Structures are given as C-alpha cells and as structure tokens.
Automatic annotation (TrEMBL):
Reaction(s) catalysed (UniProt annotation): ATP + protein L-histidine = ADP + protein N-phospho-L-histidine
Listed EC numbers: 2.7.13.3
Keywords assigned by UniProt, alphabetized: Kinase, Membrane, Phosphoprotein, Transferase, Transmembrane, Transmembrane helix, Two-component regulatory system
Protein name: histidine kinase
C-alpha cells in the first residue's frame, strides 16, 4: 500500500511539474505548438496524397469495369469511398503511426529553430545579472556621498538661522533635493536587488536549501515590515490562521514571497481599505491567501500580472505606483517550491492571490 501511495505521489508531482512547465516555459510551449502544426501539416498532406492517388486509380481505364459497378456514384463519391476504405483497412494504423512520428519528430526538430532564440535569451539574462551586479557599487558610493552632503547641509542650516530668507530658502531646497536623490538611489538599489534575485531564481542550476518552515511566522514577519507602509494609507492588515501551517521550503525565499504579495495588495488598495492574509491547512498542503479590497483586475491583466515590470491597465488611479518585479519574483519562488499560485479578481472590488505549498509532512 505504501509503494502504491509513493508511486501515486510521484505521478502527481510529475503531472504538476509538466503543468508548470507548459505554463511557465515559453520555449517548451513553442516546441509543443510547432510539433502540433507539423503533425497537422503531415496529416493534411497525407490525406491529399491518398485522395489524389485514389482519384487516379478510379480514373484509370483499367478500372472502367469497377466504375461501371458503381454507376450510381459520381467519380468524387467513388474517390472518397475508396479513401475511407483504405483508412478502414490496415493503412489506418500506418497513417496513425506517421502522424505520431511527425509529432515526436516535430518536437525535436523544433529545437534547432529555437536554439538561437534560447541562446540569445540566456545572453540577455547573463547581461542583466552582470550589469545589476556592477551597478551596486556605484549606487552605494552615490548614496554615501549624498548622505555626507546632507549632513553638511544640515550643519550649514544651523548657521543660517539668522541668514536672509532667500539663503534659507536655497538651503532648504538643496536639502530636499539631496533627500530626493537618496530616495531615488534607494529605489534603484531595490530594483537592482530584485533583478539579481530574479536572475538567480530563473537559473535552473540555482538550488535552495529546504527545511520545515512555519508559514505563520513568515507572514507575521512580513506584516511587521509593512506596518508603516499600511498605516500611511490607513489600511488594516489582518492575519487569519486555520490549523497547521508548516511547509517544506526556504525560510528567506518564503519571507520574500509573502512580503511581495502583501506589499502588492497594499499598493493597489485604496485608503482605509483592508488586506487579509489567510493561512489554511488543507490535505497535504497549506494555502496562503492574500485578500484585498483594492481596484481588482480584468482577465487580460491577470494573464500578464506576473510578467516583469507589467502594470495593469486598470491601475490608472494609482499613478504614483510604478511597476516592478515583485510578483515575478513571487512566481519564481513558488516554482522553486513546486507550488502553485492562482489569482481571482473582480474589477473595483478586490483580488485574491492564493498560494498552495506542500506541507512538511509530505517529505517526512
């Protein structure tokens, strides 16, 4: 019985992996589509060939007597009769094997066409990772220099209390300008950090160390970090726990996943709204749901919401919110954990992001 259960679990994992691969791997989807079109082309060509062959067989003078036997049939009807007869005979298996072979052949044949595109994509990914890494140092230097300049300006401000108003005004403007520069540097640093994280997660050779993780603790930590952000918009954060919450995963990665999900909901929720984080113990898995009372999304937006730097078309009322990499990182982290994420949304009413992760007991 235990062996049957193990086999069933392995089969379940294989199906989930295949589903995730079809959903997330654009090259795999392209190869499947190419194989399908290749098989359809072979099937159409084979059918045309058989019909043409039967046409000439029927039209042949040596088959005149055969045609006479089918006096009530037109030539076209006789051609189709012979074609169907061929298909109903042993030739049908031959045709089926040809189509199956073309599917397999098309799949492997497509790799040659897609190889240059795949290599180009890998080069772009390496460039993004290398460029992001190189930009971290100059940004750190810029921030340090800006902080020193701000300290000097604040000291100068103390000596300008008795200075003319125009000088005080210029000093104040300079101080605000430096503070704005520091904020933009911090924003750029966050983008670069996210680019590096996304690059690492997208790397198939990148392995995470997994252990038992309490998802409730992960959520509590994320909420602590986002409390000030939520208070600025007077948004109420609520945690609801229903049962067991231990999953098999990487603590740091799951904290980042929860942080980005909750932050995204806060960003797109109006003033005095509500964001509920619900943890449910289901059979062999734990579900983390982030439920907000935000603007919601259309089905078209949901299809692209996990694309890097995508901004929903319905987010016009949130012009101060810039698109980022948060949800793209969320998707990659969930993929590394062999989990799933689903999105349900109603326009102008809110959205629900549901993450399903396997419990630690599955791996015990």
């Amino acid at each position: 019985m235990e062996k049957i259960t193990q086999v069933w679990k392995q089969l379940e994992e294989s199906v989930i992996d295949l589903g995730n691969k079809i959903k997330d791997d654009v090259f795999f989807r392209a190869r499947l589509k190419f194989s399908f079109l290749y098989a359809v082309a072979i099937l159409v060509g084979l059918t045309v060939f058989v019909i043409t062959l039967n046409y000439f067989r029927v039209a042949d003078l040596s088959l005149k007597s055969n045609i006479d036997n089918y006096a009530d049939f037109s030539v076209g009807e006789l051609v189709m009769t012979r074609t169907i007869s061929d298909l109903e005979s042993g030739n049908f298996l031959l045709h089926l094997s040809v189509v199956a072979g073309s599917l397999v052949g098309g799949y492997f044949f497509s790799s040659g066409f897609l190889k240059p595109i795949r290599e180009s994509t890998e080069v772009q990914k390496r460039f993004v990772a290398d460029a992001s890494h190189e930009l971290r140092t100059p940004l750190s230097v810029m921030r340090t220099n800006s902080e020193l300049a701000l300290m000097n300006i604040e000291e100068l401000d103390l000596f300008c209390k008795k200075a003319p108003k125009n000088i005080k005004s210029e000093v104040g403007e300079l101080k605000d300008s430096i503070k704005s520069n520091i904020q933009e540097i911090d924003r750029s640093a966050r983008i670069i950090k996210n680019l590096l994280n996304l690059s690492h997660l997208d790397n198939k050779s990148y392995e995470m160390s997994f252990t038992r993780v309490d998802l409730h603790d992960v959520v509590v930590e994320a909420v602590k970090q986002l409390e000030d952000f939520a208070k600025k918009k007077k948004i109420k954060l609520v945690i609801v726990k229903d049962g067991h919450a231990r999953v098999w995963g990487n603590q740091t990665a799951l904290e980042e996943m929860a942080f980005n999900l909750i932050k995204n909901s806060i960003k797109y929720t109006s003033l005095k709204g509500r964001v509920e984080i619900k943890i449910e113990d289901l059979k062999n898995k734990v579900r983390l749901s982030v439920i907000d009372t935000g603007m919601g999304m259309t089905q078209g937006d949901i299809k692209h919401i996990f694309d890097p730097f995508y901004k929903a078309k319905t987010s016009g009322n949130y012009r101060d919110v810039s698109p980022g990499l948060g949800l793209a990182i969320v998707r990659e982290i969930i993929k590394k954990h062999n989990g799933t994420i689903n999105v349900k949304s109603i326009l102008n009413r809110g959205s629900v992001f549901s993450v399903n992760l396997k419990t630690s007991s599955v791996y015990s």
